[in-house]
Amino acid sequence: MDQVIELRMDATGGGLLPSSGRASASSMVVSAPRQSQTAQNMQLINNEERSRWLSATLNKERDLKERKILAARWLVRFQEEETTIFEAGIREARELYESQLVEQRVTETRQREGAEDLVQNEDRKTDLVKLVTKMAALKIRLRVQDEARDKEVQFREKVKLRREAHNTRVAALEKRQKREREELSATQERIARNAKAIQALQVRFMDEMEKRRCLREFEIESQQLRMRQQKEAEQLREFQLLRIRHIAEFVQAELANMTEMEELTAEQRAKEADLEAEHDVQLLADNEKLERQQARLKALQLKEEQKVSRNVLKQVQKRQSRLLDKQQRQGARVRERMMRSQNQNVLGGSAGTDAIEGSSEHDTSEGGESSSQFTASVMDPSETGGMTEDEADATTRAATDANAAAEAEGQRQNTATNDAAKELTEALEKGRIRVEQQRKHQVGLVDELRRYHAEVRAQKAREHRRKLAELTKDQEDETRAVKTEQASEMTELLETIGHQDLIAAQATSFDKQMDTVVSNRLLGNMLPAHVAEELKAGRTPAPSSFDNVALFFTDIYGFKELANRSQPRQIVALLNRMYVAFDDVIAGFPDLYKVETVMDSYMVCAGLSQGPVQKTLEDRQRDAATAAKCALQLLEAARGIYVGDQEVDAINLRIGIQCGPVLAGVIGTKMPHFCLFSDTVNVASRMCSTSLPLKLQVSEAMAGYLDPSRFLVEERGTISVKGKGEMKTFFVSEREE
Predict the structure, then answer these.
(1) Into which family does the record put it (predicted)?
(2) Which one of 72, 243, 482, 491 has the fewest CB atoms closer than 10 angstroms to its CB?
(3) Structural domain includes residue 362
């Protein structure tokens, strides 16, 4: 028995309602053949069967129509649902697109803000560098001003101390001069008292007339004596004032030179500071330029990174859009398959398929793309499965392509970043090299300027020394002129006041006394003390032998060439200055004896004052130390001798010392001369002639007697000595304490 069920849509179209009321009379007809009927009833049965078949056919046709209508309704509802879903997908896609646009705008805004921040930071950095440059220049200027102010204060304090020292020296000099005047006055008063006492003794036993005459003469002599003493006091005061004026002029010249040198030094320091400040500003400007270049490179790098970031963002957004579209399409196909699987049994096989197909053909123009897709999926399930596999392959390929594109984009980004970083590093390195070269060049300029300033100061110092030498010479000339004038005035005074006999007698007595003093002094200078005493006693000194003495020679290196190209007065003046200076040094050593002077040669011996006695090691060391110390002082004195009027810049003195035994004796009667004879004299002469300028050379024997704690003995080496062969010699200098 077949059962026909009518499916109707509910009033809302949301469900299906089964209808079974027509199964009995109007909507359902059941007929069954009966085998037991007879042929008579066959016709009736055929008619009834035809009626039933017709009724069943009509019912089937009606059911088919109803199923088609139901399928069309379902399709309409499905299309409406798909339309709603499609609209939701469109809204979702629009929201995704809007969110992507917002994200792009946010990214662009963030990148623009980053670029603006970079520009702003660079501007601030530039302003800060400019401010630092100004502050550095101001700091250098302030430092220079502070140093100049401190130097000025120190210079003023130094000048003040120098003036105070000068005032103290002048005060002490005035006190000493006052004592000299007081001593002169006391001497003059004593002379006057002695003269009065002598006069009183002379007139004691005279008669009255003779006494009066003598008293008048004595009164005249007293007046003359007072006049002479007054003149001496005036001349002494004049000489003292002249000396004070010379000292003041010398100090004034020194202070003027100090002021000039201080001003010159301050000006030079200011120039050096300005140059250094200019160089610092230039270096800062170069660094600023380098930083601007670095900022531009950073900006380009940031721009490239932002471009890459935007491209990456767009790629991601495209992938998101494709993924959303893919998800929507897959969702539509899944819903189609679910609808088919849920409603296939209800619609029933081919009838349902035909109904859906008919509805699809009827609604093709109305359903659009979604209905056609649905019809295709319903008509060919196997095709649906094939599309899923193709989509999986496409998805795999798309993912692979996306990964490859992302990897390529990442590699390109890394390459661009590395290239930008490399370019930035190379540019910075070149800039640093350029700045370092500029700095070295600037340091060289500053050093060259300082050397030039040092040369200028040295030239000023030499000019000042020349001026001081000229001032000293002028003062000496003025002093000699004043002394000459005073002597002339005194002579004129003596000639004016008369009584030349008394003056002559006094002069004769004084000259005799002076002759005796001068004779003794000359004798002491010409002969050793023990020989001079023998001659004063009227005895002829016998020749003697000394077991050890220390003697040295001095000479001027290149004296013959100097004498050939100099004037006679220049040579005489030079030798006179040198011998006067040497005699002053020798005067400080009582145990030394000046043997002789021949042209520029000066011979001095130590160890003759005690006579021919046996000497101990201590005596020999003392004689050697005395000779070495005196020789070193002679070298120092030679450096200070004025040579401004000579053809040389300095006296190149050479000294050689040797110790050993000598023979000594007095030769001559009218002009007795004390001579030394031995090989020691020859070796000492060779030590002098083979020495170097401004050097003291000694033999090995002499070096053994010198105390290393007092003298610095440096080995020169072996030299060839005429008549002696090879000898080891040494240079001696005074050890600094």
Answers:
(1) Belongs to the adenylyl cyclase class-4/guanylyl cyclase family.
(2) 491
(3) yes
